[in-house]
Specification:
By secondary structure, the chain is of the alpha+beta class. It is elongated, with a radius of gyration of 15 Å. Strands 2-3-1-4-5 form a five-stranded mixed β-sheet, covered by helices on one side. Helix 1 crosses helix 2.
């Protein structure tokens, strides 16, 4: 399988942020996981015009949301945060262009089998 360099940079950023946000004594997460994810990608110049909404707007082009989610899960497993991505039993994900004045980012909420928030990364 071919993975572009941008995916590797994304995976590294996800792993570093998750390690900061999730206490190491909770890792690896080794039970059922529910994930809520929001991906905010860079706005193209054409969406910076005044008539375009300033808030986040749906991103409906490549990369596909399932590919971005897969890359994020791979990063959580490779960094030792999650034992295996097969533990994911529920997923809600969205992909957006960033708000007009903000940088690209990804936000994750991981919930364990007790459905209490583990942490936000």
């Amino acid at each position: 399988m071919w993975t572009p360099a941008t995916a590797d940079a994304f995976k590294t950023a996800v792993a570093l942020a998750a390690r900061e946000a999730i206490p190491q004594d909770l890792c690896p997460i080794d039970g059922p996981i529910r994930l809520v994810a929001a991906f905010y990608l860079r706005r193209p110049q054409r969406l910076l015009a005044r008539r375009v909404p300033r808030e986040a707007i749906p991103h409906v082009s490549k990369p596909d949301v399932d590919n971005v989610v897969k890359a994020a899960l791979d990063a959580l497993v490779q960094s030792g945060i999650v034992r295996d991505d097969s533990l994911l039993y529920s997923l809600s994900a969205g992909k957006y262009y960033t708000e007009a004045d903000l940088a690209p980012r990804a936000e994750f909420w991981l919930y364990t089998n007790t459905d209490t928030e583990t942490n936000h990364a």
